Amino acid sequence: MSMLGVLFPVEVPWMISPSVPYLRMELSKQEQPAAATFVGFFELEAGSNAVAPLVVRDPGEFVRSNSINGAAHRLVKVIFEEVSHARVLPAVSDLEVISEQLYDWSNVPSGIESGETAEQSVARMGRLWKATGFCPDPRMYEVRDSYWLRELELDANQWRHYILLGHDEYVEVAARQFDWQPGQIV
Predict the structure, then answer these.
(1) How many CB atoms lie within 10 A of CB 71?
(2) Interacting residues of 186 by C-beta distance below 8 A, sequence separation 6+
(3) Which helix (H) or strand (E) holds 81?
(4) What are the φ and ψ backbone dihedral angles of 40, each rounded to 5 degrees?
(5) Cα→Cα distances 151→11, 31, 85, 158, Å
(6) Residue 106 has what DSSP assignment?
(7) I need a labelling partner for 173 at 20 to 30 A (CA). Which of 7, 36, 110, 164 fits?
(8) pTM value?
(9) Would you call 148 exposed, middle or buried from its count of C-beta atoms within 10 A (0-12, 13-18, 19+)?
């Protein structure tokens, strides 16, 4: 067994905004699941505004929406079912949110490929997002071959290890599964 956890992007139509320092974790309360809330970017809703600067003020409490249509940026709530453990940790440095060398990133298609410019990489990711409807690198991953699950003595066939990357911090959750809800436009 490898000590490296293998990252797999979750299949969602949004990306946790890497430039907005807003990632909140609500721990489980009686008869309520744990949840993480953040500003999500929906490229397929962005149109020509995808590169427009965005100033986000505190969006307030999450208000569920019935649609993701009409806005590139909105709050998103990820709801975790049957949470065993959850933790919020500060970024490991100014350059990395998590210690990237501890993970196998080979299943995450982001990054600049050989012979590719930064602009070409962004365009490739946009084409992949549009072709599949899923963000190729949503900044939320399932960690397979998870050292943390082994440390917690949780059966990897029944439990999942999720990591959500924010701007200044990240969230790790050991849960059975997750679902998500769109919220208000920010």
Answers:
(1) 18
(2) 39, 56, 59, 71, 73, 74, 75
(3) strand 73-81
(4) -105, 145
(5) 26, 27, 12, 15
(6) T
(7) 110
(8) 0.91
(9) middle
